[in-house]
């Protein structure tokens, strides 16, 4: 069956300004793909991060220039398809991810099977965290209230008022807290002090405490601290994983960094081989991206798949999220519906 494809930019708005150590945004432009074979439609999403690549306009240009080649990619040979995607779109992992997702969705729909079953997963998942971005201290009570149904919070730090943020949050809740510094601590002494007081605040783990290029410092921090360290900006692609042994306890896998589900599954296998705990994470994304990553959910010790619930309005429906519990669907493929 001949394939056709269409794409569009969708502007998605977050409930609150979404601020991390290096950026602050209240909306994001993502690229949505629909891959059609006249019987089924496979959905994919590119949510490009400024940390890693160019924006959505550049993605549309790449799509236009390679449209015929895209429509000739194999639906049922993910490995070969991914190799070709990496050659065609070396500069955009989120575009690779969008296309890989759309092809997997189409493939699984043709099989009449949920994608998580094809990946050998189960339907039972651990509870996902809900992210509290960096905020003005006056807004923190509203954010904690907004997150009242979610039992696990992921707190973004890496500011010069980290203590005040944590004090404000801990003053209001004794929930499980995870901390993501997004490379915000630039020297080892600061990082050691940070890890010490966060251990006292009863934090579960520390994500990317220092810049990715300071891997030696991070390894020293791991020796020093009792908190498990999880790599994110250090854990981009499958080939990064072996080099993280000794510096981290776990790795965060994101579709938009690694180039899609084919590579994400490769990272899962490598993480297991090197005895890393696995976290699955996301950018601010619609239910397309979140549903895609959720298909590998049963391989994770930690889930951070809240990009769609941070939105004021999600243009798609896919996996459910009931108080952090991700509900995988029993529908063929990803089970995406356009709203
Ligand atoms: Mg992170």
Q: What would your notes on this structure say?
A:
33% of the residues lie in helices and 23% in strands. The chain is built from 12 helices and 15 strands. With 339 residues, it is α/β, with parallel strands linked by helices. It is globular and about 60 Å long. Helix 12 (287-294) links the parallel strand 10 and strand 11 (302-303). It has an 8-stranded parallel beta sheet with strand order 4-5-6-7-8-9-10-11. The mean pLDDT is 96. It has 2 domains: 4-112, Enolase-like, N-terminal domain (Enolase-like, domain 1); 117-338, TIM Barrel. The longest helix is centred in the N-terminal third of the chain and has 19 residues, at 93-111. Helix 3 packs antiparallel against helix 4 (93-111) and helix 8 runs parallel beside helix 9 (215-224). The protein starts with a strand and ends with a strand. Magnesium ion binds at residues 180, 182, 207-208, 232, 252.
Please specify the SSE layout and strand pairing.
Blueprint: E1 4-20, E2 23-36, E3 41-46, H1 56-65, H2 67-71, H3 78-88, H4 93-111, H5 115-118, E4 130-132, H6 140-146, E5 152-156, H7 162-170, E6 176-180, H8 188-200, E7 203-207, H9 215-224, E8 229-231, E9 250-253, H10 255-258, H11 261-273, E10 277-280, H12 287-294, E11 302-303, E12 316-317, E13 320-322, E14 325-327, E15 337-338
Helix pairs in contact: 3-4, 8-9
The site of magnesium ion has 6 residues, from loops.
What characteristics describe this protein?
single chain; 339 residues; alpha/beta; Enolase-like, domain 1; TIM Barrel; 2 domains; three-stranded antiparallel β-sheet; 12 helices; 23% strand; globular; binds magnesium ion
């Amino acid at each position: 069956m001949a394939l056709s494809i269409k794409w569009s930019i969708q502007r998605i708005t977050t409930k609150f300004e979404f601020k991390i150590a290096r950026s602050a945004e209240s909306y994001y432009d993502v690229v949505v793909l629909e891959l059609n074979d006249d019987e089924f439609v496979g959905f994919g999403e590119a949510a490009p991060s400024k940390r890693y690549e160019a924006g959505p306009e550049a993605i549309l240009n790449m799509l236009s220039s390679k449209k015929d080649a895209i429509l000739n990619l194999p639906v049922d040979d993910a490995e070969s398809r991914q190799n070709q995607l990496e050659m065609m779109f070396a500069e955009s992992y989120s575009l690779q991810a969008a296309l890989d997702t759309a092809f997997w969705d189409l493939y699984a729909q043709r099989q009449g099977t949920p994608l998580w079953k094809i990946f050998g997963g189960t339907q039972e998942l651990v509870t996902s965290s809900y992210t509290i971005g960096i905020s003005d201290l006056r807004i923190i009570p509203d954010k904690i209230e907004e997150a009242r149904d979610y039992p696990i919070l992921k707190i973004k730090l890496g500011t010069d008022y980290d203590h005040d943020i944590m004090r404000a949050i801990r003053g209001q809740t004794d929930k499980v807290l995870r901390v993501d510094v997004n490379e915000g601590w630039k020297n080892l002494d600061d990082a050691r002090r940070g890890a010490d007081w966060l251990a006292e605040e009863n934090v579960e783990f520390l994500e990317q405490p220092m810049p990715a290029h300071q891997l030696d410092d991070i390894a020293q921090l791991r020796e020093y601290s009792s908190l498990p360290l999880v790599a994110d900006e250090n854990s981009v692609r499958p080939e990064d994983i072996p080099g993280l042994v000794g510096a981290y306890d776990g790795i965060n896998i994101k579709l938009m960094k690694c180039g899609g589900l084919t590579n994400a599954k490769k990272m899962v296998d490598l993480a297991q081989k090197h005895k890393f705990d696995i976290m699955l994470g996301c950018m601010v994304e619609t239910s397309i991206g979140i549903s895609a990553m959720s298909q590998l959910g049963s391989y994770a010790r930690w889930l951070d798949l809240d990009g769609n619930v941070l939105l004021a309005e999600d243009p798609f429906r896919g996996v459910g999220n009931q108080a952090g519990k991700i509900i995988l669907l029993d529908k063929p493929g990803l089970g995406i519906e356009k709203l």
